[in-house]
Amino acid sequence: MLQAYTSSVRTAADEPVPVVAPDGRTVPWEGFCTGPVVLSPDDLQAVSHRLLGLDLSQVPAAARAELEPYGALRGEQPAVVIGAATSLKKCFEADLAHVVEGTSPDDFASYNEARAVYLAGPGDLVVGRTEPWRQAVAASEAEGVEVPGLEFYYLTHALLTQAMTYAESGERTGLHRIVSRLREAPHTVVRLFALDLEAQILLVWLRRTAGPARLRVDANGPEIGRLWNHKTTLYPTVEEAEGLADGARRADPYELLAAESHLTPFHREFGVVLPRVPGYSISRAGAGLAEVTARVAGAARLLRERYGLPLGCFKPATGLTGSRIRTAVPLGDEEALGALARQAMETEEDYVLEAHTDYLRHPIDGYDFILAPSAHVVAGRLAEGATIQITRGSVWEGSVYIDEHSCRNVGISVEHFRFVREGMRELLGAFEGNGRSLGFVKGGVDFAIARIGGRFGERPVVGMQDLNLSSNGAEYVRAFLREAREVRGAGVHAATKVVRPTAGTDLRWLKAAVDAADTGHHTRVITSVPSRWGLIAVACQEPQEAAEAVLALEEHLYDEGLLRTVLRHHG
Hints:
Elements: H1 2-6, E1 17-20, E2 26-29, H2 41-52, H3 59-66, E3 67-69, E4 79-82, H4 91-101, H5 108-115, E5 125-128, H6 131-138, E6 143-146, H7 155-169, H8 174-184, E7 189-192, H9 197-210, E8 215-218, H10 222-228, H11 238-242, H12 246-249, H13 253-261, H14 265-270, E9 279-282, H15 289-307, E10 311-316, E11 326-330, H16 334-344, E12 351-355, E13 358-359, E14 361-364, E15 367-370, E16 374-378, E17 381-382, E18 386-392, E19 395-402, H17 414-432, E20 443-451, E21 461-468, H18 474-488, E22 493-499, H19 507-517, E23 522-529, E24 533-540, H20 543-559
Parallel strand pairs: 3-8, 4-5, 4-7, 5-6, 7-8
Antiparallel strand pairs: 1-2, 9-12, 10-11, 10-12, 13-20, 14-15, 16-17, 16-20, 18-19, 19-22, 20-21, 22-24, 23-24
């Protein structure tokens, strides 16, 4: 069945491939480095049976027994890097939504394969398929392992198809090099974006084929990705919140928020109250339009009646980089709320309706930062410092490293900085404390420092807004910071910026232009996927200086005709 499903699919190098969108329309899949083929649950069931002799429902238990979450920095251990996009974050759905809307997709599958090369140390194996990936490998000290399967959106799906060929014929493909490396060096770490179900099948098969007692994986344990890496972790459902006792409903807004927080999935499981803004989760799975509409309306009513809030923010529970978010939703507008319900019906995923946040801001030359700091876990430990985000609207476009000594330079008080890091410490302690370990080795949490109005008045609220319990964009600014400190010393700060290259701007062109710019700073081009997505980085002495320098570098590249858009000055 799998062969019949994939054999007639053209690759991304051919003419546009028709894809059926969730609303039933057929749209052209074009301009991507990979094709649109995504293995169905039935396909994955067949793959699991053929490779492991297991039903899909049995795979997580096998992964827990045979895979070891193992956090390691670049170069600390030999590694195999598999920079696959993940179905846990609805990467394909996010790109397809852009195609349907007529906006520019990110091509997350391609850029994640290419940027992941930067996380490889000398001699590490890096797996991929695309031309941007090949160029990234050529510019690195890693060894590329190229695999076929360009028609598949997800790299893991291509690898699973190859695994079946390898298992049945013993054909010496790229997988043979990976198996050989794991046999020669069983302490090798496999780096992944996230340990989704597809990756679990692949890695359990690799362990059984290569033979180590347990396979080390630089990714969080399966339970974290499956149960906790989404926004609904932080919010009660509308139905649960409506059951709150009358006395609690009339309480001070902070006491009310705490009472509702005791109803969240996270508190029920771990007994920990995480800081958050008011909001409610809306379950989509299996519900019809009338039921979803009632839940959206109920969440809006609770935000109005309990907290006096006029505006809300509607987010997919597993959204990626801030895409598909609807901000400033009027909570008393039935037509607007109905449109949100119809949006939720397009895919089988849950949503959150939370308070609209009026972020505190910090201006630099030509750009205003929203104060949305992020704290992180790296290699199983609370990472030093934090980052603030460069955003375009609600979409993440870069990170700036800050610490307690420099946070005030970007408008964040030491008190708020410590509060953010303590919230991350509590999350880490919940996953890895009280005799329990879920294998939390990497991830980040985005916080808001914002006014939400209503009964909270003008006092800023600090709360978690997004859980990114997997590899994340800040991983790259931290890796670049380590590189920059080796060159410029311990006191430097760093910033990364997402850029949008023109059709002809590959990694070689972008790197040549950055080198020629001679900024006087330590710089690097990490990724370039022409027409889609790239990542540049700059290191300076202070965070504000690094932010201004990376935005100035983007502006220079735009003026040189190498980028399609620019954030500062030009819009």
